[in-house]
């Protein structure tokens, strides 16, 4: 019976005449249980609404609590032998900015006297990065003791999540010897959702998928499957220490280990619900992260965390794939599945997916588990559908909703299922560096639901993730140019490729950061970086910026190539090499043999076709890079030329060449040129086009909507497998 033992208070900032009926409506519609109408009615009867906006409201509410409490104390009819426990529990589901004041007022007016216990449940977000989370923890600790606080992550209350540790613990003999890098090929932790973010888009836009579910729910699941087992499964302190130890061994996630996506209608949902400054949001609604644990058990095992909204199904699970160490000789039909199944997997199904219910599914080729308490071997589950894949599946006898389960743990004062302060901060250590760098990671646009499942398929190799196909449209949401611009919004793409628009100096910084980012990824994956630079005036400021920040760039592993060259001596001021040397090369420490000027000057002649300088350059390029440059920086002339590929020139159709002799431009700077052709340009891993200055506005406008490559050669640039970005300054974009 609730009567005289429980009282429930619902509270919010709204006045009682709005909040009270709203609370009634919520209670009536959302409390669902079987044959419990009386209990539901009793619960609702004992629940009242209170406005909590100003200090006075807290005072009134808590006086009310105190008097109820006093009444309960005098009227309870327990015998002297019975000890009646009193407690006061607060559940705060409020924005982080409201925590400090709320905590202060609860502490001031609502803290009961001993022996009545006092506990506080806190809902995420617990900050938005390491720093803010430390600040929040510091504010809370002024008012509440650590043992009074229960940070709730409802994934820890899911029935499967609660079973993972006991399951591992009671199966130590069966699985612990294969629970490691020698036997496990990979671990996948998925949280796919069909829902979009409508209705909470403003909240969501501040956090995105990594803060919303990856730093907390998925990281918690990761810990449960990979932490060292405690010696005593009932020793909560030991369990919490083991969790912390694991979190401290997870390496911070790097940008190259992450793929991001945003569903296509996200931007319009945002615009419909918010102020215009929210357009062009870069908030990801999908993320895949490759996580590494730097310890003896897990080093080198790829652990994939994937989460997204508006996907084709709702499914949360942890899948562990074991390495296949048995070679089977039997015919397919006569496989003895218990020994020779081609599949060795273990799945903790949290919910949804083809199984639908929480379940533990284990290939029969793995040892049969023992002691799965309260769980039964179930025929209900139809999971590994491939022939030859038999399995044992265990489902829970009862499945209690995660929040109810956790709240009852708070009553029991059981801290095991809650997030400790140290664990929280360690988890932010894993994700914060990435979150600071998120704006540099391109977003893959996906349609959502069933329409486009292929576009999010990805692969992992060499500690890096890549979308399976990058041919689909990718975009990076643009920056809004600074304050007094007359633009309301700028599209995220230009000619189907990502567009970055900023005032010139910011733009140059962004471009330099982008080059550095790609250089670092390239050096991480293959040990070098091949960069091709254009001549002309546009890149001068970029080169000066790079020279000034030379110490930040891995020049010793970088090769510099020329996009094009004028047929002039390299010491002549109009030579592109001369300019690149003057503004960059002479200021940096780069190995001499990593500099590749174009051989325009051979045998005392300039670009004599019999000298085959272009073929020589192509040969060196092929030898050093297989014809695939890592990064090409292009510009655009007012006539639409790029590199030294000029309108209506035969060089535009040189299908068989990677480097060509071309013609164009003015006499003053030589009409004879050497240039990379479209073959080489479109073979590159990344191409950026830099367009600066109001005088480039017209050409930008012209090429926005044409594919006439003969007339506007720049429109022929579209890397086959690589990425491309347009870096445009606000003067060129807005015609200033
Ligand atoms: O905490 C959150 O979780 C829900 C998903 O929870 P589930 O129990 O339905 O799997 C998610 O939709 C929401 O964005 C996130 O804040």
Automatic annotation (TrEMBL):
Record pathway: Carbohydrate degradation; pentose phosphate pathway
Claim: NADP is one of the keywords in the record: yes
Protein keywords: Carbohydrate metabolism, Glucose metabolism, NADP
Annotated InterPro entries: 6-phosphogluconolactonase_DevB (IPR005900), G6P_DH (IPR001282), G6P_DH_C (IPR022675), G6P_DH_NAD-bd (IPR022674), Glc/Gal-6P_isomerase (IPR006148), NAD(P)-bd_dom_sf (IPR036291), NagB/RpiA_transferase-like (IPR037171)
CDD domains (UniProt xref): 6PGL
GO cellular component terms, semicolon-separated: endoplasmic reticulum
Entry GO MF terms: 6-phosphogluconolactonase activity; glucose-6-phosphate dehydrogenase activity; NADP binding
Pfam families: G6PD_C, G6PD_N, Glucosamine_iso
Keyword Plastid belongs to the record: no
Any Gene Ontology biological process: pentose-phosphate shunt, oxidative branch
Protein name: Uncharacterized protein
């Amino acid at each position: 019976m609730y009567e005289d033992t429980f009282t429930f208070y619902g509270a919010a900032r709204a006045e009682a005449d709005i909040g009270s009926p709203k609370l009634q409506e919520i209670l009536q519609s959302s409390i669902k249980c079987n044959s419990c109408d009386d209990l539901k009615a009793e619960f609702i009867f004992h629940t009242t609404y209170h406005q909590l906006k100003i200090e006075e409201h807290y005072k009134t509410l808590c006086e009310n609590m105190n008097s109820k409490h006093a009444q309960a104390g005098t009227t309870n009819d327990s015998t002297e032998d019975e000890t009646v426990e009193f407690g006061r529990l607060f559940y705060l589901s409020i924005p982080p900015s409201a925590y400090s004041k709320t905590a202060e007022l609860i502490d001031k007016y609502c803290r009961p006297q001993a022996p009545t216990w006092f506990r506080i449940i806190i809902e995420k977000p617990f900050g938005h990065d390491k720093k803010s989370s430390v600040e929040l923890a510091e504010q809370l600790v002024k008012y509440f003791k650590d043992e009074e606080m229960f940070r709730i992550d409802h994934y820890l209350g899911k029935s499967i999540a609660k079973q993972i540790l006991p399951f591992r613990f009671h199966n130590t003999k069966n699985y612990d010897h294969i629970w490691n890098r020698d036997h496990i090929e990979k671990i996948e932790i998925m949280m796919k959702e069909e829902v979009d973010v409508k209705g909470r888009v403003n909240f969501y836009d501040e956090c995105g998928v990594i803060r919303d579910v990856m730093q907390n729910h998925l990281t918690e699941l990761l810990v449960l499957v990979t932490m060292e087992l405690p010696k005593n499964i009932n020793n909560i302190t030991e369990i919490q220490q083991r969790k912390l130890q694991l979190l401290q061994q997870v390496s911070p996630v790097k940008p190259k280990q992450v793929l991001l996506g945003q569903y296509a209608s996200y931007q319009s949902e945002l615009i419909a619900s918010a102020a215009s400054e929210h357009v062009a949001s870069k908030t990801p609604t999908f993320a895949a992260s490759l996580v590494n644990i730097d310890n003896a058990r897990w080093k080198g095992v790829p652990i994939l965390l994937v989460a997204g909204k508006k996907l084709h199904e709702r499914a949360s699970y942890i899948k562990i794939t074991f390495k296949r160490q048995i070679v089977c000789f039997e015919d397919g039909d006569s496989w003895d599945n218990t020994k020779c199944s081609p599949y060795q997997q273990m799945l903790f199904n949290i919910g949804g997916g083809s199984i639908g219910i929480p379940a533990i599914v284990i290939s029969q080729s793995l040892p049969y588990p023992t002691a799965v308490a309260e769980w039964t071997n179930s025929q209900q589950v139809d999971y590994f559908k491939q022939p030859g894949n038999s399995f044992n599946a265990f489902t829970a006898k009862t499945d209690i909703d995660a929040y109810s389960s956790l709240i009852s743990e708070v009553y029991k004062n059981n801290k095991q299922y809650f997030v400790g302060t140290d664990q929280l901060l360690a988890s932010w250590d894993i994700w914060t560096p990435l979150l600071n760098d998120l704006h540099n990671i391109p977003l893959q646009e996906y349609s959502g639901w069933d329409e486009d499942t292929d576009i999010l398929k990805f692969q992992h190799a060499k500690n890096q993730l890549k979308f399976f196909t990058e041919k689909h449209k990718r975009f990076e949401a643009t920056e809004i140019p600074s304050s007094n611009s007359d633009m309301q919004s700028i599209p995220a793409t230009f000619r189907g490729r990502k567009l970055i628009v900023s005032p010139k100096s910011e733009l140059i910084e962004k471009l330099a950061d982008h080059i550095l980012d790609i250089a670092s990824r390239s050096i991480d994956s293959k040990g070098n970086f091949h960069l091709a630079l254009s001549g002309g005036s546009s890149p001068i400021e970029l080169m000066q910026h790079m020279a000034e920040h030379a110490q930040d760039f891995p020049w010793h592993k970088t090769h510099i190539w020329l996009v094009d060259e004028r047929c002039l001596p390299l010491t002549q001021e109009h030579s592109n090499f001369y300019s690149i040397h003057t503004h960059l090369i002479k200021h940096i420490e780069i190995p001499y043999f990593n500099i590749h000027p174009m051989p325009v000057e051979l045998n005392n002649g300039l670009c004599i076709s019999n000298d085959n300088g272009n073929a020589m350059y192509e040969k060196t390029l092929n030898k050093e890079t297989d014809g695939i440059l890592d990064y090409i920086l292009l510009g655009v002339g007012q006539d639409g030329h790029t590199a030294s590929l000029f309108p209506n020139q035969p060089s535009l159709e040189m299908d068989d060449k990677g480097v060509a002799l071309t013609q164009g431009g003015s006499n003053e700077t030589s009409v004879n040129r050497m240039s990379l052709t479209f073959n080489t340009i479109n073979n590159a891993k990344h191409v950026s086009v830099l367009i600066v200055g109001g005088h480039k506005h017209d050409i930008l406008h012209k090429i926005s909507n044409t594919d006439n490559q003969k007339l506007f050669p720049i429109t022929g640039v579209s890397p086959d497998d690589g990425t491309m970005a347009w870096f445009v300054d606000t003067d060129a974009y807005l015609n200033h």
